[in-house]
Amino acid sequence: MSTDTYIETVGRRKTAVARVRITPAGRNAMTVNDKALDEFFPTKVLQNIAREALDEAKDEKFKVSVKVVGGGTSAQAEAMRHGIARALVKHNLELRSPLKKKGFLTRDQRAKERRKFGLKKARKAAQWSKR
Length: 131
Hints:
Blueprint: E1 7-13, E2 16-24, E3 29-32, E4 35-36, H1 37-40, H2 44-56, E5 62-69, H3 73-91, H4 96-102
């Protein structure tokens, strides 16, 4: 694979969608929406979630570029992790089993349930009164 080619995948979580491009390069560099990773995700926890899949490919270095839309910050970080994991598997099939074991290849489908009419929230009803 030449250095100018990249692998593009999509990662999702809740309503967040991350378009991930990884390029095999000489250094580990991550940009999210044209910002540095630590600038886009201010907390270490979110930065670690976004980087988790990349840590599985210890030997190799990648330039990662991500466009994220929708959702909250934590869903965006998890969508990023999902997209990066998918891209790594496309690049090297041997990474599939360790990533699968950690659950990074599985799209977490849990999302907020819609509100139903006649109820206050998705399942919460008005308090019942005997008199």
